[in-house]
Design brief:
This protein is globular. The chain is mainly α. Strands 1-2 form a two-stranded antiparallel sheet.
Length: 134
């Protein structure tokens, strides 16, 4: 897998700044990965390409494409066999997804690997609940 598929929706009444969000997210991600791997330079070959979804049918079509893309490309036999993160199971069962991440900002602020500090105390748990499309 060499790219992601995601979907965002804006809160009614809030400005739509998807490009600014992606720019900030990928900037933070690049800095942290470069710091973790002890390297410098760009991480992404191209800019984010996004497409506005204007109605429920378009949203359903894009969701179906993103969830089934790995099967279409022959990388897995079934959507449920996708090795990376996917919202498929949560959408299929209605159960919330739970995952953890390391708060690397806090970890690095305390000295991180340079001071031999374990990242384990900086683990944070997140729960994400997806609402199926109508």
């Amino acid at each position: 897998m060499n790219h992601e598929h995601d979907g965002l929706s804006r809160v009614v009444g809030e400005p739509t700044e998807v490009s600014a969000l992606y720019k900030h997210f990928y900037s933070l991600l690049s800095r942290e990965l470069n710091r973790l791997w002890g390297r410098e330079g760009t991480m992404w070959a191209t800019r984010v390409r996004s497409r506005e979804v204007v109605d429920d049918m378009s949203a359903e079509k894009q969701l179906f494409y993103s969830v089934t893309n790995m099967v279409k490309d022959g990388l897995v036999d079934r959507v449920s066999h996708t090795p990376g993160y996917t919202c498929y199971n949560s959408l299929a069962t209605g159960e919330a997804e739970k995952f953890w991440y390391i708060d690397r900002t806090a970890w690095w602020a305390k000295g991180g690997p340079k001071r031999g500090i374990s990242p384990q105390p900086f683990i944070k748990w997140v729960e994400v609940k997806y609402d199926p499309l109508p």
